[in-house]
Structure formats: C-alpha cells, structure tokens
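Two records follow; treat each independently.
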Amino acid sequence: MARVANTPPFVDKPSSRSWPLWAVALALFVWLSCTAWLRPLAVPDEGRYAGVAWEMIRSGDWLTPTLNGLPFFHKPPLFYWITASSLSTFGLTLWAARLASVLGALLGAWSLYALTRRWVGPQLAAWSAIGLVTQPFYFGGAQYANLDMLVAGCIAATIALGAHAVLLREAGQPHRMVLWGTYALAGLGLLAKGLIGLVLPGAVLVLWLLVTGRWRSLLAMLSVPGLLVLGLVAAPWFVAMQRLYPDFFHYFFVYQHFQRFTQTGFNNMHPVWWYVPMIVALTLPWVPAALVSLWRSSPAQLGAAQPSVDEAMARHQRALRHLMWVWLVVIVGFFSIPASKLPGYVLPALPPLAWLVAEALLRRWPRPASRVVPVLGGVAAVVCLALIGAAAHFDKQSSRAAVPVIQPWLDQGAPLVYVDEFVYDLPFYLGRKVPVPVISNWDDPDLPRHDNDRKELFDAGEFRPAVAAEVLVAKSQWPQWLCRHERLIVFGADDAPEKYPELRTQAPVLQLKLWQVWLLERSRLQAAGLRCPAESAADVPLLDKAAAAH
C-alpha cells in the first residue's frame, strides 16, 4: 500500500456519523464521573488509597507514599500522584478522590473507541464504547478510588496503541512514534500497579502476533528507543525508593508480586472458575444479549464482518477480533491462577469483552441495531445509576458520621487513638495533619501471618522504625496513655472492651457499623480504679503535641 506521511495516532476517515475524538472523550468523562460524588468512601480500599494521597499533600513528600506516616509500598505512586493533584485542585471531596479512577476508565474506553474507529469504522467503535461504559462493572470501577481501574486503563491503552502501531506498519504508514508511545504507556502501567502494567499488555500483544502469524511485526515491535522511553518513565521512582530504603526491591517485587501471586494465606480465596460467572453477572445485560444473538445467528453471520465495511476494513476487523479474544483470555486466565481473587483484578478484560459483544450484536442485527443497542445501553445505564444509588443508600461502613461528633473534642485538644484497628477513611474526612497512634500488641508473633490492616502498618513500620515507635504504640503503654490525657478519643471494634477493660467504664458516645467511639475522661477512669503515677506535660508524646497544635 502507498505510504501515508505524518499520520497521527488514531485518525480515521472523515464520517458525518462520527463525533470528533475530543467530543467523544468529553462525553465519556461526563458519564463516567456523573455520580462519583455520591457514595462515601468504601473501607478499607477507598479510605486507604485516598488517605495515602492526602498524606502526600499534608506532608509535602510526593516521592514516598505513606500510610499513617509510614512508607506504604504495596503499590507504586501514579494513583497517589494523580489523586493528590486532584485533591490539591478541588479540595478534599469525594469526586476529587475518585478522579484517578475516572481518568483510568476514560483512557480505556477512549482507546478502544479510537482504535476501532480508525481500523473498522464508527458504528462498531460507538457500540463498543457504549457497551463498555454502561457495563455496571466498568461504571462502578470508574467510581471506586483504588488502583484497579487506573491500571486497567493503562493496560487497555497500551494494547490499543501497540495494535495500532502494528497495523500502521503493515499499511506502510509511519508507526515509530506510536510504538514509542506504547512503551511510554507501559511505563505508566508499571507506575500504576507494578509489573502487571507491563507484563499483561506485552503478553497480549506478543500472543496476538504469534496467533495471527505476524512474525515480522513481532520483531519490529521490539524497540531499543522504546525501552529507553519506558525506563525514563518508570525507572526513576523505583531507583529512588531503593536508594532510600534498601529492602524496597525485595518487598515490592518479591513479596508483593511473586509471593502474593503464588502463595495462599491471603484474603479473598476463590475457585479458579470464579471470574467467569462474576463477569457475566456484573456486565448485565450485555453478555446475555450477546449470547442470545450468537445462538440465533446463522453460520454465515458468525463468520461475517461488520456490515457495510470494505475489504480492507473487514481484514482489520478480523485482526482486531483475534486481538480481543487473546486479550480477554489472557487477562481472565492470568488472574484465575492465584487463589486470592478480587473483582477489580479483571477490569482490564472488560474492553475486549465489550468489543466482542458489540460485534456479535451488529452481526446478528445489522439493520435494527440502531434500535437494539440503544435500548440495551439505556437499560444498562439505568442499572448503573441504580446500583450506585443503592450503594450510597445502604453502605453504612463509613466513619464520616463520626466527624461532627469528635471534631469539637479535637478542637479542644483531645487526642485521637485507635485500638487494634485502623480507620482508613477518617483522616481523609478530618483533613488530619498528623498520623493517628494505633495501640495494639505489635509484638504478637502471629501478626505477620495475617493479611489485614495491622499487618500493613507493621510492614510499613519496618521501613521507618523511628516513626513507627511514635505511631505504633505497644498495648503495654495503654494505661500510660489513659493517665497522660484528661480526655482521650478512642476508636475500636465492638470487641475492643474485651481486650481493653477500661472501655467498659464509660459507654461509647457513638456506635458505627464497624467501630465504636469512646470519649474517655481520666477523672472517671480514676474513680473506677485507674491508678496513675505523678505525671508531667513532658510525658505527653510528641505526636499528641503536634495533633493538638493542629
């Protein structure tokens, strides 16, 4: 084919039926973010990740992610950087806390749309994008403040741009800048959630090229300049962390990646087939509609390309169909291997699923598709909004209701402590300037064997022992804390009074779903039998003084 000079990424033939790409992006963004302000932060995930971003702002350290003042190396920093920028711009709001996930979903949907429109046509592109963003699974993931949707968007964009580079090369068009962009996106995926942001899109693209016999393209996609771009994007942060914390590489790559993938003993254990019915249920009504269309299609329809496309586009549609199947199988297969499974892990599989569903519907209903797909999209959109509304109404796990109760006491200088628990979302709602001391049995030999909030803090404390000594308070110091403070605000689980008998002397001032809140008064504790030695202001921990100052 003739060489076309200076072809920018994802530019297709003009069509009166196509919106400009910027308008598509704007429409997708408005839809994906329309209810991001509605729900309280879910705990623990949303409270944890929004809280880490907030700590970047209040500490001024945007290099090292911290959880309660301690280095938090479960995940790399891209989500925190985006969220901290959003919170700095828009304030401590729920919408700002979820913007990184919205942008990840937008990146994934727009990439799928742009790739399909460029190589197949606007109709399949539009129905793929509509089907994707109205899947309740995808829509909900876009408004959930954790790292899953951001890395899913990076993976989708990397695959889409990589496939675009392959097809440009085969068409004799300039492709090197697009290829280098693919490597840059892989670097962002690495910064979004670690190795899966690089390994998974690489595995999808390589397997697709092998399955479709594109051996020459496989070699051409290996680019030394691209690897340099990837390194420039991703390497500086990892190198900086290893220089600051010599155990970082082992903890981040060996423990958080390979051991969590291969070992049992973590939470959320599910059988190998768990993702398949879960995906079908969470993408209603799209997957059942596609199955019906396939069941009622003739063999000729099943093998046909999208109606009204020319020979070249039909060839490209077959190539993308192979890509989507490989993409779907690789993602679901990869995350089905480990015993520990969470729904968000397979969000990168939803873009190819939406594409395959849209293609099946268009093959079965080529003429009435203008009615079938919008009806399905409308039903799906209503389901999306209803589920978000239900979550906002029925989710009672948030600590937000405690803020108006405890804020006056905090303003009067009463310290805040947790016992045996970490209330992830409370520092965000309070806009708290300093870490919250957590009183627990940190010498428990079984603690490292559990996959919970105490284990997260214990691991983080290993990187900054001096800060951990202030933040992770030994249970043996509990009586001293009671004696040092005239008043003490305490958060704990319902069973906390069994382990801390002093809590029984005063009724909780607030009962939440997950926690109880006490305002302990030293005079009443002493009347109930607490013995306090002679004390001085110097005994008050530095962390308490900092909290009172704020």
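The next record belongs to a different protein.
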Amino acid sequence: MLQHLSITNYVIIENLELDFSNGFSVITGETGAGKSILLGALGLILGERADTSALSNKEGKCIIEGIFQINKKQYQHYFLNNDLDFESDTIIRREINSKGKSRAFINDTPVGLNVLKELGTQLVDIHSQHETLALKNNSFQLKVLDAYACVDLSNYQKLYSEFVEAKVNLEDAVELSSKKSTDFDYILFQAKEINELSLKENEKEDIEEKLKLINNSESIKTVLNYASENLSGTENSALRTLKNIVFKLSSIESFSEDYSVLHQRLNELSIELEDITSEVESKNEDFSFDPENLMYLNERVNKIYAIEQKHNLNSTQEILDFLAGLNSSLEKVENNEELIVELKGVLKQKETVLILASKEVTKKRKASVAKMEKEVINNLKDLGMPDTSFKIEVQPLASPSESGCDKVDFLFSANKGFGVQEISKAASGGELSRLMLVVKMFLAKASKVSTIIFDEIDTGVSGDIADKMAKIMSEMAHNTQVVAITHLPQVAALGAKHYRIVKNAKKGKAKTEVTLLKENERIQELAKMLSGKTLTDAAIKNAEALLLTSH
C-alpha cells in the first residue's frame, strides 16, 4: 500500500508531500491542474524512464520518494533474489540530476531500473485513460481470461523456451547443411594451413625468447666473460679475496662472539659466491651462437606471425584455440546430416510435450469461459447495461506461442437484438470504460497488487452509472488500496479521502499543489463539480446531500 509520496522539483511541482490511507481515495481538479504530472512522478519510482525535461529547476535535482507498506511473505522472494534489505515500510527513491542522469534506490540501496520496475509492477497498477484501448487487443484479452481462470503459464513457458531452442538448433543445422560445400572447403583449408605448422604449446613465445638471446649474443658473451674473469680468473678476483678474508677471520674468531659471527657469515657468503661463480663459468662455456638455428627460428616465427595476422590472433594459445574451433566446425559439417536427423527428433519430442502442456492450459481457460461471461454480464447490468451480450471465443492457433496455443476474442453487444461483435466494432467509449472497470476487478484479484490507481476510468459515463462505477471501486477498496482521479461528483463523493489538485501562479511561474480536503472543503469542491465555478445554494445543498448519502 502507498503510504506517502514526496515530490521535489518535478515539472511544475516544486515541493509536495502527500499521505495516503488504505481504502478508497479520490483526486479531483480542473483539466491541466497537474493530475497527469502527479501520475508521471509516481511512474518514475515504479521504474519508468526519465529525462531532464522532468526538472522544474534545471539547476536543481529532482527527487521523488514513495513509502510503501508491504507484506514480507509476499515479497521476501524478490528481496532475497536482489540482495535487498527488507523493510515493512519500504522506501523507494528516484533522483534525476541536471544532466538527466537518473539513480534509483530501494531502502537506500542503489538498484537498476529493471529491478525497480520489477517491484513497481507488483506494487501499483496505474490505469491510464489510453489503457482502455487495450481491451481491443487479443493479447490483453488472453491475459484477462488467464487472470480470471488462475492460469499459471510458468511450466508451459519453460517448455516453450526449450521448444524454441530446439527449433533454432535445427534451423542452424539446416542452414549449415545448405552451405556445406563452400564452408567445408574454406574451413578445411584454414585448418590444414595451421595443422602444417605442427605448433607446440607456447612455441611462438619460446622462439621469441631464444631470438632475444641470439640477437644479443655479443653483449651477453662480453658480460659473462667479464663476470667470470672478475669472480675467479685473476689473483685479486672477488672469490679469492673473499676466501682470504674468511681465512684471516678464522684466526681471531675464538677471541670474541662478534668475530665468530662475522667469520660464519662471510664463510656462508663465500660458499654462495663459489656456487654463483661456477654457474657463471658454466654458462660462459656453454654459450654458443648457431647461424643456421637463427635462420630456422626466424622462418618459423614469421610463419606463426603470418597466421596471427591473417586471423587477428595474438598468441600461440589463441592459434591453437582457433584451430580447435575450426576442427569442431569441420566435425559438425561432417556429421551434419546425422545431426539434423537427431535434432528433428529432439524438436518433435519437445513439441509433443509442449502440446500436451498447452492442452491443459486450454482446458483450464475453456472451463472458466461460461462463468466469466456470466460475471461480466451481471456486472455490466449493475452498471446500467441490461441488454449486454458478452461472449469469449477460444480458438486454436496454427502453431504454439509463448502464451499457449489459443487465440482469445472478446465479443460484445450492448443492444438487444444485435449479435455480438469484436469489441473494437461494438463498444462506445462509455461502454468500454465500464467493461474495463469489470476487467480490472478480475485482474486485481489475480495479481494481488496492493494499489490500483484509476485515471478517469469513468470517462464517458454520468449520473446513476457513475454512482454505480464508484460503488464498484469502493468495494474493490475493501481488499486493495484504490485511488481514482475523476471529474464526476458521484465518484468523488464516495471516496473515504478526497484530495484536490490545483495549479497556481507564483512569482510568474505555474505551480501544482495537492490538498487533502476537510469536510466543508469537500462540500465546496463537490458543489463546483456540480455547478461550475459559480457556487449556488442549490449546488451546495446537492453536494451536502451527495456526501451524506455516500457515507
């Protein structure tokens, strides 16, 4: 349930703080006062996209925050999946800076727009005026029937995904088969060219290391000669000098612990230096330069470079991985005919399982048709349409879809003696509004959404019908928080809370403000809705009577 809405610097709303309660609330105001702006702000914390045009003050930040009372059992899966802290009073905040950059938070944890939208669709259902047109759409009609029939498509959709994957795999194999000869020869040529190299693991890198040594052989030999000579090759070499020092210290080590330690350390150093000297001499003796080997290595590495450049690769391992991919492709091409037969069998099996699952879905849909038809007709009769005919046709599709194997058509007639037709041909605006209200009742029960907002769903109706639509919304509010934006006094009078939205000019700039009306203010507002700007005693008395009979 939406408890509080705070809006700062959004379009013509400078600062707004609104508290909401459960039950049925109404919002009234003149056209252009900012009702759509209010819904736009709410839409932002429910995951809608935004831009800098949302900012009233382009130098400031737009902040919209909503506090929602939510049920832990119903939403704990969502919070766990998204690693969010659960709070029974969950705070959703959206910020938009002057550059249009948007950030979203749930209980002060930053979240992506997709995560925000996932929660928003579960919390609030905003029925906009244009949404009534969705009634003419077969996909929406199918969604309504499924909601009424409590159809769970999760298992079917999992099977459908597997069916689509099997279908794509078969199509890919068939396409590969059609290009078999050309592709096969080209892939074979590439693989043969690389195979002829007989590459070893890290071979390029090893050759580059060897070439580095060979190309610097003169410098290396000079340094090794110098090191060998100065370590042990002369009378005053480092090793002989160090050994002499060790010998001298051995004669005084018994005089002091300090001398003993020095003797021991230098002796260890002498042993280490002797080992190093031996290694330097060995490397100096073994170092050689083979011109023929240099030629071979250069030819070898140039061939490897050519393969890398040709296929945009950078290492021996990448070449070997590329070759493995080519071999895998060759294997697929060579075994493609067998693969196609196998994939056809997999697709047939997936389709068989899918069709069985779809029959269960169809069965459940058809089992609810008569009951739903009856409920729709009865509700429409209560809404002043006594001669309504309403039929639901469930027809098979030529092939499975993500929603099953059915096409659903809502057929409608508002007049006695006329056959039912598609809704788009048979229903007027007012009739569509009433039908949509009935549909919303079904959807609200199925989705368990905590808040429903109706944006002038009563468009095209008046008088007694408006009163009856208001009563339906009021009854819906026994289980769900309902907010109705309306121009009709009959609807406004039935709200437990009544908010008025107005647009005023302050310092030459339009500002939208929303106020929770007290009883005497409600009477004034209803009187204006009944008679216009000029208030009459009769209008006030009518407003008082309307408010009295509505509560």
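Discussion point: The radius of gyration is 41 Å. How would you locate this feature using only the token line?
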